[in-house]
Specification:
The chain is mainly alpha-helical and 158 residues long. The chain contains 5 helices and 2 strands, in the order αααααββ. A two-stranded antiparallel sheet has the order 1-2.
């Protein structure tokens, strides 16, 4: 994942509610999966395996976010374990078939959470983060980001 993507995810995290945060974790997982696929296509097995591990860690975060007091969490847990098994299989066999199966499930699940996020009226999770506005100022051929109410004591990274 390049720095531009990391910065994009960091901005999104700072402005996300609970459900949007889950969507962001899916997006990060899918980015790592895409990086893994690119590494596989290039024959770079080291990078392939590293990105499979990063994708799996994102799925672990999704599992940790489950609330087992809600019935659907058991079904989500089973799907997440299916994804993890496919990622592990891809790593062990050094083929991309397990990765492709995992990506399909992750994309389908992401779309469900995108729709749920539209219904979530809860507030932003991280109140003390900087608010970034894109396009308030611009230069020739580019938009600039402006930080509103910057608090230098608050930092985090993805």
């Amino acid at each position: 994942m390049d720095n531009t993507k990391q910065e994009e995810f960091t901005r999104r995290i700072g402005n996300a509610n609970k459900t949007e945060m889950i969507v962001i974790v899916y997006d990060i997982a899918l980015q790592y999966a895409a990086d893994a696929q690119n590494a596989y296509n290039a024959g770079d097995m080291t990078s392939y395996c590293e990105n499979l591990t990063r994708t799996r860690k994102c799925v672990d975060n999704l599992i940790e976010a489950l609330n087992f007091d809600i019935d659907i969490s058991n079904q989500l847990f089973a799907l997440y374990n299916f994804v993890k098994k496919n990622l592990m299989n891809a790593r062990i066999t050094r083929t991309d078939s397990g990765l492709k199966d995992a990506v399909k499930v992750l994309k389908d699940m992401r779309e469900i959470f995108v729709e749920l996020a539209k219904l979530d009226n809860s507030g932003v999770m991280m109140d003390s983060t900087q608010h970034v506005v894109t396009g308030m100022t611009y230069g020739k051929g580019m938009l600039n980001d402006s930080v509103v109410n910057a608090d230098r004591s608050t930092t985090f990274s993805v």
